[in-house]
Amino acid sequence: MKEPMTRKLSVLRVNRHEASEFEDTIVKEHSATIKINDREVVTLLCSPMDLEYLATGFLLSEGLLKSRDEIIRTSMNGDDRKSTVRIETKDSGNFSKYASSRRLIASSGGRGSSYGNALPDSQPTIESRVEISASEVLALVEDFHQRSPVFEATGGVHSAALCRPDGILVFHDDIGRHNAVDKVFGECFLKDISTTDSIIVTSGRVSSEILLKVARRRVPVIISVAAPTDVAVQLAENIGITLVGFVRGNRMNVYTHDWRVKIDGK
Amino acid sequence: MKEPMTRKLSVLRVNRHEASEFEDTIVKEHSATIKINDREVVTLLCSPMDLEYLATGFLLSEGLLKSRDEIIRTSMNGDDRKSTVRIETKDSGNFSKYASSRRLIASSGGRGSSYGNALPDSQPTIESRVEISASEVLALVEDFHQRSPVFEATGGVHSAALCRPDGILVFHDDIGRHNAVDKVFGECFLKDISTTDSIIVTSGRVSSEILLKVARRRVPVIISVAAPTDVAVQLAENIGITLVGFVRGNRMNVYTHDWRVKIDGK
User: Fold this and answer.
1) Is the pLDDT of residue B248 over 50?
2) Distances (CA, A) of B112 to B78, B116, B204
């Protein structure tokens, strides 16, 4: 389903002394229910695009899918407001475990049980020797900002991208910052695009949940235009991930494993 | 528990040609488990402040608490990273219903089962005749932006406030935009501050879930500095809530029930 992500609407623009009608563009909100082998896993509020990537990425982030061979087929139906994405797998064992796991719901963007189930020490260290220069970080983020006409028009979506140091490979928008990241990983998984030695760029803040999604896909570098939390920084340090935040103008903050970020001319 | 919401950390600030260490301030991430009558309801990732307000507000937003009389006592324990908030109620009936309800997890900020359980038509229309002038909206938002030294220092929190047209009554910060709103409603509930005829201001985007929280507390006006989704606009229209978005500089967009917003001198 490739529904447009936005809708036109008549809105009153008001300042202190006057008001006028204009036609505004706002983001659509869609409800996607994910089923594995006909059992409902979750319902996500999301943008109505690339829902198979979203479903796959969500299951990856939750540790419910490991390899593409597990998927027999995916299918989807729905309307403008609601969809159901069905994923048929060879083994339903993982899901039973999930259904009985603790429900954890999180800070703005809260989702899933990852945090409760994947404590820092249970993630093997990421050894990737990939490096990126400060200029490459700035160029990636500049390109990233130009990739979202939906954000430009509505201000209502987050974006995420999988990159190599020299450019963006996969890019997605969603009203949820978690969904945008899941769509990226879902597409990579279904298209066999390797995520190791790559870089994730996100428009959203980096909490423990986002950091753990990235760790699960063995991505060694995460770049955010926004702020991280202290737990995300601690996890990144422990797992061996380079966490870059507040990329703005010509500068950035490097919170962990700064050896992967090279200064130009050094 | 009044833990500070932030932590100092040594960070590398990098531009194209140089790097230097500095001491940065970042937000803490905390894990709060809410229990009703010793049964676990949810674990929220949040800022470590005002957790009793957070727990109470969450239960209100989920429709699990109706009146203050239902609460026999609240208690809390924990450490720097994790807390448990226990709420003892007279009747545990509501919770059983909750535990068996569909799990709905949402776009960035996703939470709870509100959306699945409270469809537009099930919310009685809000009849409040409260009015606010465009200048009062601008003044509230200006004051709102100045209330958060944590945002100023870290960029890592959302804020929410309960207001009257002439000023802010209750204000909270949290790493989650949902949590900030829940803390506001939790404090109002525990202190018997009426939310009818009042105004909610939020720094976050307005999705259906946020709109429904506000509807549950019978608040007739929601003001956001950010974007709404189309479903939030539709719900606001149906329920009788004035939804104002993108309050920036000297202007704003009024999406629904614009008769409550008065132009100065008219």
Assistant:
1) yes
2) 23, 9, 18
